[in-house]
Fold these 3 entries.
Entry 1:
Amino acid sequence: CRNPPVFTNAQAAVTSENGFYPHGTTLNYNCLIGYVGRLRYMCDDGSWKNTNRRFDCQLKPCGSPGDILHATFQLIRGDDLVFGARIEYICDEGYKMVGTKNYRDCEADGWSGLVPYCEVQTCSSVKEPEHVTIIASATFDLDQDFPFGSALQFECSSSELEIEGVKEIYCLANGTWSNPVPNCKELVCSKPTIPHGQLLSDKEVFKYSEQLKYKCKRNYRPENIQHTACNKFGWIPQPTCTPIVCHVPRIEHSQLLTSKWMYSPVSSIWMDPKSKLCRKQVCTTKRRY
């Protein structure tokens, strides 16, 4: 036989100097670096034949590259965890890779490099603004960094102040806070608009607990009292003017001829069917005839 088979993953252990191989000659092949197994061919009546088809040189497996906490890995080169493959580690949300490389290669002697690790992302420490109280979701020192997922709530130190900004911020996966740290400002109420009413003050802005006095126009009365106070929910009670109405009274042996339910100088006229005498009743501001 001449010209023994040539393989990309194996090499014959011994070759003939003159290139001729007598009948019955057996050639053993050594797998190349990165491959495992064996090959054997025999010269049989002028041609090379595989003595055992189960023999082969296959890519050397590397096994598991190693799991790490708060991360997963994926195959980015090759189809299996064998020689020549490359895997890449990806940290979970809120974690960052520590190490010079986030990948490992399957080499002839195993996986390259060291297993990296992922550490939690942190947000910078927070300074407590003036008149602001910070409530943390866990026990933390405000001078230290806060881990991903931490929440801070803010309250003003006085009921006369209100939060300027958001009342709660979170440490995000990228290591930044969801919103700036808020401040506390003086709590004020704007001058309200009262349908059918009139303010008894020319002020545009009122401070916390300051009272507002108003009056209602003719035919209307205050829903509650004629003064209201500014607090963190606005004006309490809400200044409102409602129409003055009277419930129609019952008068024996009379029938109602005309009626105006709203406050008016003459609200209803009644007539006695027998005497034909009429009686008029006035709806007063006290909502009675």
Entry 2:
Amino acid sequence: MSKMKSLFEMSKKTVITLACLAAAVAVIGTGTAYAVRAAAERNSIGKATAERFALADAGVDMSSALVSKAEFGRENGQYVYEVEFVANGVEYDYTINAADGAVIARDADGQMPGAVQSNAPAVTPPAATSSVTTISAERAKEIALQHASLSAADVNFVHSELDYDDGVQVYDVEFYKGNAEYDYEIDAATGIVLSYDYDAEDHQPTAQPNDSATTPPADAQAPVDSNNAAYIGVDRAKNIAVSHAGVALADAAFQKAKLENDDGRAEYEIEFFKDGIEYDYTIDAVSGTVLEYDAERDD
């Protein structure tokens, strides 16, 4: 009897040991899977590049698209990015190879003439990878000037340099016109304007007949009087900002619109969103002049 009991206890210990080993192997296996996935994502083209390849394949400009999803995952034994966006009333769904950017699958709902068809054969994106430049520095300068509605004769270029931003190859273009500084970031593969910034340096507000209304307060950071009749008002400042950006007032989602004091100068700080793009404006409170602005896609 004691021998049977001993054998039973030994079997029980063996089962427990094997269960513990199985659990340990499962944990190790899970950890290895996570490590492999993390390494694959680090070596992938990146979310931003996957978005650009999908947009380029659909023939959609980034400025007119609202990206709702760009996720890294595994499908049919390979790592991919699932990209979803809406443009011109059409909803697009893309599966992009995470290693080389090839389009694996695409689908479009509410299709317009010429829209991509569901389950069409995979194609190679127009720019093979983020390491290949498809536009020149001169072309990047032309794109920036066209966006700013200026000509080469109007400006003095500081630089047009190739750089990387989050693994994406871009051109940083900087130039001046008078006392205004322009900075652009342009996708080197597609030529899309990713972000831009304008700064009217050392701007002086327009003088008003009532000197007391425009004299900066003794304390450069003191609050400004929003009821000052010399100021254009926050509603007018908002209209100036959206008009400059080419956005309808009704379409802008305002995050900030307030009067502030910057080194003794009254300014309106305006921030709003439209189609996934964040716009920031600084407007002179007296003259309504746009002192600074920038626009950047909100990732």
Entry 3:
Amino acid sequence: MAMEIFTVGRGQEGYPERLMPFADMPSRLFVRGALPADEQKTAAIVGARICTAYGKSQAAFFAQVLAANGVAVISGLACGIDAAAHEGALRGKGKTFAVLGCGVDICYPKQNYPLMRRMLENGGGVLSEFPPGAEPLPWHFPIRNRVISALADVVLVIEAKEKSGSLITADYALEQGKTVFALPGRTTDATSRGCNRLIAQGAEIAISPETILEELGVKKAGTKRAAPRPRYGKEAEMVLKTLAAEPQNLAQLAGSTGIPLQELTGILLALEIDGVIAENPPGVYMALS
């Protein structure tokens, strides 16, 4: 993936118009790939690195629907919610962009390199205020969050603990006059406490992707006749067959199928995005007819 790095300075042609109203934005950006088009609607989807399968599936689902309706998805390429949002946007055949807390010549975390490559190959980009070679230092991430929110027309927080970097992004968004949405969750779930608190403080409830499209003034594309269910690999078909017999939680599925947990969560996410299974209630998976 050899893609040249370019820089654009504040006030120069190509510098994002969305950043211009705010005095604390970077004086220059380092970019690989592309920047979000000024005329395209954008939504930031952020959340916890250590998240639930439900959170991942919802991040991917919201991103997929938004991207399919022409909305560019902004996030931070972190593990967990960020990666699921980028992945969902790609599944929706849309463009997705990552604001990094390191140089754009570094993929952090390393395991997201294949994802970053596909983002670039599909017309998206990665950008940073930190020069090439800059390491992903802890203090870089809170300040890059102001760029994530500034690039977005709306911000959606999927899962966040009470003290979370995602809440920093939400705070920046509110200061910038952006609408903040939060996905509600169970009061007993640590990863939902931050979102529930945002809602209590006045954030919009993310009931569905359509609520965000409505906020953006985007009319949802007409639905097409459902395509036949795709054929999956051996492991995914095994999961579908097992869930068709009875709903199961993750531990039960792992025991029933013998599929390692890490691989199983990826399979479940893909099946849920395709609409052939659902998590209902949270933590329990069922096949859809």
